[in-house]
Structure formats: structure tokens, C-alpha cells
Amino acid sequence: MAYSDWWKKSVVYQVYPRSYQDSNGDGIGDLPGLTSRLPYIKDLGADVIWLNPIYKSPDKDNGYDISDYRSIQPAYGTMDDFDKMLQEAHVLGLKIIMDLVVNHTSDQNKWFQESKKSKDNPYRDYYIWRDPVDGHAPNNWGSYFNGSTWKFDETTGQYYLHLFADGQPDLNWENPQVRDEVWNVMRFWLDKGVDGFRMDVINLISKPAGLPDGPKAPNEKYADVGKVVADGPRLNEFLQEMNQKVLSKYDVMTVGEMPDSTPEDAIKYTGLDSHELHMVFQFDHVGLAGNADKRLGKWNDAPIKLVELKKSLSKWETELNGKGWNSLYWNNHDQPRAVSRFATDDPKYRVKAAKMLGTTLHMMQGTPYVYEGEELGMTNVHYTKLSQYEDLESLNAYHEFVDDEKIVDADSMLKYLSYKSRDNARTPMQWDENKNSGFTSGKPWFELNPNFKEINARDQIEDSKSVFSYYKKLIDLRHNSDLIVYGDYELLDPEEEQVFAYKRRYNDETLLVISNFTKEQVTRDYGQSKGKLLIGNYDDDLDMEIRPYESKVYLFR
Ligand code: TEU
Ligand code: CA
After folding, report:
1. Could you give the count of Cα atoms lying within 13 Å of 311 in the half-sphere of its Cβ?
2. Which of 57, 200, 263, 501 is most deeply buried (CB count within 10 A of its CB)?
3. What is the pLDDT of residues 171-203, one digit of tens each?
4. Which residues are catalytically annotated?
5. pTM, entire model
6. What domains sit in the chain, N to C, each tagged with a CATH number?
7. Which of 164, 231, 255, 285 to mutate to test the pocket of ligand 1 (most atoms within 8 A of CB)?
8. What backbone phi and psi angles, to 5 degrees, belong to 129?
9. SS3 for 305-324, per residue?
């Protein structure tokens, strides 16, 4: 059966349920809370909600460690609450896609509890177990969350593999029984009526045969596991099996989270004839900003260079055009807040800067994602103390680099955390100016950003000049334009260091997008005087003058 490409014309809104809306005063966001906010998401104009994991979990990695794929985390509510939420969303015309986390489970999952009991347990091969080599871990892979990817288990004297935390053992996809279990989990949710999946690190599921050591610089302790495991030998085969046995039977949307993936890989997964996934969610542009000390990985506070950002985003625009499909995003629950990272959260420019980023992204080819609070221009939280952090990635990195290996001093690491930590995205949603910003009547699980009196939904919904109202217009433009959805893309002036300008073309129409990424006014002529202004973030248009963080879009027919 052939389905239409509604997912190409959609805008996705991402909800991190823990921080969205609490309904019962326990300080934790939940499903009834989300249900009560669905009309807000509808008002914004989003079509699809990507819901971060809500399954039963010991929450070592906020739900990305699932102990039971068929039940709801009690703090989020009951299955009944889920069904009501889904039904309510559908009544409003909103689709719900679930987070499918099947590269790994929690170590509390029944499958792993069985697997670790003995070498001949029927679940043993659900995971990846290896003997020690010379009394050490079987290879040199370093976990995404620091330390080795191997953990020794006394019971059977073997190591198990975990690309993420040691509480997140990797499933063995070579085992057909594991794949059948995953297909059944997918059917369980699809039969309830969910509208698709965002698949967590799905390009890491096929490990290279023999699990060989990876390349490693002499001063590094471990090899970068992403470089060894991403886009493994059987990945396309596994995704095709998933499509054939499950996905092809439902009209749903699928997006594969793909760290360390290339456009060539993405075309294989999302190409017209691939029968795999609809779109990729890749990390090129958020992985930018190099560090002098590679051992620190993503941890630095180097601002992103606009020339590199343009190159990265444009590469995906042009290489996937007509061949594959990409997701467009500035931030999610794993990334700092967009406005703080890619522009400025200086109160003098914040509103302009947030709208400028929105314009730059929403006029591109791909499916745009709005992460909760981005539509308000929410900012990084700017913590100064380690005790304020909650996220295990941030805490592990601090302990490894500052305490154990002593390769960075505490003050610098705290600066890096305040710029890059995932916790920046996880502070509760800012609904109004009241206590806890309307997120909870109790004690919030995580401190709110103290700027909620200045930045909150209630103020912005009523204000036609707010970031929220501007995002509504951006989304509305896409819904009414094949040019924005399907047009070709051309980057203008690649080496220009202050302005991001590009064109889109479709049939006889051309769109011109001009964004100033700096707080200086500049003069640029891209022929805009002959176009019709579609949208802009200043009240008037000074033609060739481009003001601080100004962004404007012109149509030519
Ligand atoms: O993230 C996958 C991933 O590649 C992470 O290493 C990501 O780059 C990192 O969090 C950035 O700081 C997914 C989920 O989105 C993340 O929340 C989970 O922690 C991770 O998988 C493990 O399931
Ligand atoms: Ca709650």
C-alpha cells in the first residue's frame, strides 16, 4: 500500500514529559498534564508530537533505560491516562509519535535480569556477553557516557556491552528472537493507534563482526565508539526487516536518530526505494565547534562559526534533495537551548534572535522540530555549581575529566557544562508568571529557570509580537507553501561571516531568506528590493540594511 507524504509537510513539537506539565502536585510532569496542554500545541500549529520515553524505567537516563516496554512509568500516570491523551490528541488532529529505545534496555528489564543469571539462560543471547581478554575488557571502546563500554559481571565471569551507561546494556540484534521482540513491542503501540516512532540511536544497533578495537590517539584512554559502531554492516537489512514485518502495514511516520551518520548513509535509509525510514535526525551541525583538547569531546565553550554552520546545514540540504529526507532542529532534550547557543540570550536581543533562528530553520527543506519552550525563546539556565546538575552525562564527564584524569580544571569544566549540558533543555516548561511558572503546585523535580517571569507562555500567547506568535506564522507559512516544503536549496555567499542567506526554488517561484547572526548592522544586496516581503522579525524593512539579528524572507514570482 502506498501512503502519502504527510510527514514531509508536518511540523513536529517535542515534549519532554517530565518537564512539561505536572497535574497532581508531585513535581513531575505527567500524561494528564500533557493532555491538558494539547490545545496549546494545537494553537501553535504543530501537526505531530514526539513524546520522549514514558515507559517504566529506573530513570538512570531519564527514561532511556526501559525496564518494561508495555507499561507506563507510574510517575507519568496509567495506561488509561495514555489512551485518553492519545484519543484527545487525535480529536484535535494531532499525531503522537513515541520514542522507541531498542539499541539497549535497562539492566532492570526482565530480559536482562534473566540474561545475567547464567550462560545457558534462554535470554543469555539477548545481550552481548564476552569473556575477559588478559583480565581486561574485550576491546578498547569508550562509552558515550564516559569510561569503558564493558562492564564485568561476577555471576558468570563475563563482560556485557553498554554503549551508554552501565545500566543500559545493549541488545544483541544478531539474535532473531530479539528482533521479533522489538517488532512485537512496535505492534503493541501501533495497534493502540500511535502515529509512529522516533527511533533512539537506531544506527548503532548493528555491531561490526568480531567487535574489533577502534582507532585511538596515543593520549586517549578509549576509542570513540560512535566511529566504530555507527551504520554497521547489517543496519539496512534490519531496518528493511522492520519495515517489511511491521511499518509497511501502518500509515505512520518514522524518524531515525543517527549520530555519526553521513548524507550518503541517510539516503540509504530514507531514499524512495529504501523501504526503511522516512527521515533521519543527524548531528552534524550540533557537533560543530572544535576543542583544542579532543579528549574532552563535546565539552567546550567555543562559539559556533557561522561559515561552518552554513556549510554543515547546506550540505544536508543539497545532498538529500530529491533523494532522502532530513529533520530540521536547533535543539532537543540532549542539546543546550538554541537561542543561547546559536545566537544570544542577552535580553536586549533575545526575542529578535529567537525569531531569527526560527526563520532560518523553518524556511529550509526537511521536517522542522520545535523543542518545548523553543517557541518562547527559552534560554540556558546558566548554573554555576556542580550540585545544580542532574544529568548523568554531565556528571560523569565532570568526574572523569576533573577528578579522575585531571585534564581540565573545575572552573573551566563548569563553564563548559553551563554552555553545553543537556540539563539546559530539561528545566520545566515556563507557562506563566506564578509560582513555579504554573508547571507544578508542588516542589518541581528540577529547578526552574529563574527567568520565567520574563519568558512564559501566558504573556506570549496574547502578544502578537512574541516569539510564540512568530512561530505560529512560520508554521502557517509552511502549511500553505509547496515551495517551502519541496523547493531546491542554494546557499548564497558561503564565506560571508555574519549573514546566512539562501534561496529556495520550486516551479516559477523563488524564496530568499536573509538572516543576520550578529549584533551589528550590515549592508547586503541579494536583490531583495525586487521581492515581496513574506515575513520578518522587525516592524519595517530597510531593504539592504540588515539590523542586529534581523531575519527576512522574500518571495519572487
Ligand atoms: O542520544 C543519543 C546520542 O547520540 C547521545 O550521545 C547524544 O548525542 C548526547 O546525549 C548528547 O549530549 C539518545 C537520547 O536522545 C539520549 O537522551 C539518551 O541518553 C541516549 O540516546 C541513550 O539512550
Ligand atoms: Ca505528576
Report:
1. 11
2. 57
3. 999 999 999 999 999 999 999 999 999 999 999
4. 200, 257
5. 0.97
6. 9-98+329-383+421-480 (3.20.20.80), 110-161 (3.90.400.10), 180-325 (3.20.20.80), 486-556 (2.60.40.1180)
7. 164
8. -105, 140
9. CHHHHHHHHHHHHHHHCCCC
